[in-house]
Amino acid sequence: METGRRRFVKTVGAAAGALPVAGAGLAAAAATQGPGRAGAEPFAYDFLDPRRHQVAPAPLAQARAEGIEAFAFDAYGTLFDVFSVTALCEELFPGHGAALAQRWRAKQLQYSLLRSLMGRHRDFWLVTGDALVNAAAGLGLDLTPARRDRLMEAYLTLAAFPDVRPGLEALRDRGVKLAILSNGEPRMLEAAARSAGIDTLLDTIISVEEVKIFKVSPRVYNLGPERLGVDRSALGFVSSNAWDVAGAASAGLTTFWIQRSAAEPPEELGFDAHHVVSALTELAPLVGA
Questions:
Q1: Could you report the per-residue pLDDT of 183-216, keeping only the tens digit for each?
Q2: Does one domain contain both 121 and 218?
Q3: Helices 97-118, 124-138: inter-axial angle, 10-degree rounding
Q4: Count of CB atoms situated within 10 Å of the CB of 89
Q5: From the candidates 46, 49, 74, 123, which is the catalytic residue?
Q6: Is 244 a catalytic residue?
Q7: Quick one: which of 114, 139, 205, 217 is 20 to 30 A from 225 by CA?
């Protein structure tokens, strides 16, 4: 049976053929999500859907994160499960649900990257809609306005990962400021946080719309300390996306990678995570009582 990762590679390959410069960059970025080690099979890890490799890494002794006063969290893939839309995709397009969810996410990431490189910003709600239209067309699916609306509305009620609420609550108990720092458009983020029941745990929600460029621009990560009113050294950035962690580390933030799967390697970008955990609930013990 074809794996989700192989389906994604085909998607990237097709996009790279249509967009020889930027598409090739995306293909290269996708390739670094694989093992990247001598003798390892390429493209073995599905970074778009880490649940396919849900083997929890063994807990490791972690160095304490001294001086952290605030955490900024990535939203999509870190707090909210972007693949919780798969069931609705399958309901609307029987037999194509997983493929549509995979391709939709791939195009969403690709379009955010391409628009940043092109200097042609469009907010994440619109980018997500464009990605859905392209994904459905690529699979030959009849995306009626009604179906499109239902799928788009699902992005406002994405399921949170089970470790999210208890992890945030534990950090709140320690007096740490908490925020979302995301590519998402503000309305999307506010709705998803409210639906997941975590909005009351957050001090603020920070969107790239303030700077009109997507991650991994350093301008995005610079918003964290500015908006939370802390020194750069006192802000921890948290993401389950290894590429996002590398971007934040490159921008000078202390980074915490939620490695939800032991099969996922770090990116080969020269900026490793300062701390690696397997769940949000492992963060609070690192910052003390």
A1: 999 999 999 999 999 999 999 999 999 999 999 9
A2: no
A3: 130
A4: 27
A5: 74
A6: no
A7: 114
> E strand or H helix at 235, and its extent?
strand 235-239
Amino acid identity, residue 224? G
Q: Are residues 58 and 200 in the same domain?
A: yes
Question: Residue 82 gets which letter from DSSP?
Answer: G
For residues 58 and 181, state if they share a domain. yes
Q: Can you list the alpha helix ranges (DSSP code H) found in the chain?
A: 4-18, 22-32, 86-92, 97-118, 124-138, 145-154, 164-173, 186-196, 218-228, 242-250, 284-287
How confident is the model over 143-164, as pLDDT tens digits?
999 999 999 999 999 999 999 9
Distance CA 12, CA 6 (A): 10
Domain tally, the chain: 2
Say if residue 252 is in the same domain as residue 214: yes
- Work out the percent of the chain whose per-residue pLDDT is above 90: 74
In tens, the pLDDT along 61-116 reads 457 778 899 999 999 999 999 999 999 999 999 999 999 999 999 999 999 999 99
pLDDT at residue 10 greater than cutoff 90: no
DSSP string, 9-54: HHHHHHHHHHSTTHHHHHHHHHHHTS--STTPPTT---TT-GGGG-
Q: Which residue in this structure is represented by tokens 């239902």?
A: 150
Confidence at residue 62, expressed as pLDDT on a 0 to 100 scale: 59
ω into 211 cis (within 30 of 0): no
Measured in degrees and rounded to the nearest 5, phi and psi for residue 68 equal: -80, 120
Quote the pLDDT of residue 47: 44
For residue 126, the domain's CATH number is: 1.10.150.240
Which structural domain range is residue 22 located in? 4-46+82-154
